[in-house]
Inverse folding.
């Protein structure tokens, strides 16, 4: 793991760099805001955590924290000699993950670093990643584009047809009655949708999506109950 350390006191910086490297971390050391901004702009994706001194000769750690948080999801810990509530709250409000007041023991700093990194690792493994595509056999629904493809070829759907396939996609494997479908597509296109209209739209969808609309494999009929999407 690589840590960006920004500290203007060169004696403290060298001691911190040595201690971090002894713990197995790679380090990038900067002594001012300008140098740190250049590193953030070019190497942020390589960095696992940032340690920013709050008071720097050409600015403050606040500026660096803002730049980091605007461009990535990288944890930030402030190093500060100021232990008043206003500065601490300001830093945390800007997105900083923790702060430690000088002078501090190196073991305490290492413990804080490990704790913050664990939080980020746990968040990455437990939070679901946004889904940008849904696959229904050889049909792909690209959610960000609002488009549907079958074997890489775009299928043009009306607003109501798209709404209908999304209802099926969001209930894969579940049997949906005709009344349930009607409730969810009611007037979505500004038109009255009745039972006969639903039949027509399902027929059109099958013609566009199925290899053999007479023997549908995607939108399947469950006799006496309704429809479901085959998984």
């Amino acid at each position: 793991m690589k840590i960006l350390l920004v500290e203007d006191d060169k004696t403290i910086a060298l001691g911190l760099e040595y201690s971090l490297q002894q713990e197995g971390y790679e380090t990038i050391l900067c002594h001012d805001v300008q140098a740190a901004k250049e590193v953030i702009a070019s190497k942020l994706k390589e960095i696992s955590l940032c340690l920013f001194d709050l008071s720097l000769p050409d600015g403050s750690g606040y500026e660096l924290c803002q730049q980091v948080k605007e461009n990535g999801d990288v944890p930030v810990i402030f190093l500060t000699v100021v232990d008043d509530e206003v500065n601490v709250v300001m830093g945390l409000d800007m997105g900083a993950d923790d702060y430690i007041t000088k002078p501090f023991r190196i073991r305490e700093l290492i413990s804080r670093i490990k704790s913050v990194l664990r939080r980020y690792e746990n968040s990455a493994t437990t939070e679901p990643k946004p889904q940008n595509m849904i696959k229904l056999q050889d049909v792909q629904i690209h959610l960000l584009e609002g488009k549907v493809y079958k074997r890489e070829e775009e299928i043009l759907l009306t607003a109501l047809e798209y709404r209908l396939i999304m209802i099926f996609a969001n209930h894969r494997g579940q049997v949906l009655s005709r009344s349930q479908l009607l409730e969810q597509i009611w007037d979505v296109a500004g038109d009255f949708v009745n039972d006969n209209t639903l039949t027509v739209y399902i027929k059109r969808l099958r013609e566009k999506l199925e290899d053999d609309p007479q023997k549908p494999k995607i939108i399947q009929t469950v006799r006496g109950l309704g429809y479901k999407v085959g998984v």
